[in-house]
Design a protein that fits this description.
single chain; 88 residues; alpha+beta; four-stranded antiparallel beta sheet; 2 helices; 4 strands; 28% helix
Length: 88
């Protein structure tokens, strides 16, 4: 098993500041709020660069022109959307 350093970025999703942490060795993508509470955890099968490019594209697109998550995230979104839940 690789001991790769996680990739981290902070961004705003739906008006909430969140931190994205991607573990390239396992493909785990964790989204936490500003207090560190886990909001969502899923797997991202593409690279960190691909994830950042997807979020950048989303942030530069007008709300009314934004694609459906199925379009933006493809099979990664569909295969994990049902199994991922917000933490309570």
């Amino acid at each position: 098993m690789l001991a790769a350093k996680p990739c981290t970025a902070t961004c705003v999703i739906d008006g909430i500041a969140v931190t994205l942490t991607f573990f390239p060795d396992t493909g785990v993508l964790r989204i936490t709020d500003s207090t560190g509470s886990r909001l969502r955890e899923t797997r991202w099968s593409a690279s960190w660069d691909s994830l950042v490019a997807t979020f950048r594209e989303l942030s530069e697109t007008a709300d009314e022109d934004r694609a459906d998550p199925d379009v933006l995230f493809g099979s990664v979104y569909r295969s994990h959307a049902a199994s991922t839940r917000f933490a309570t």
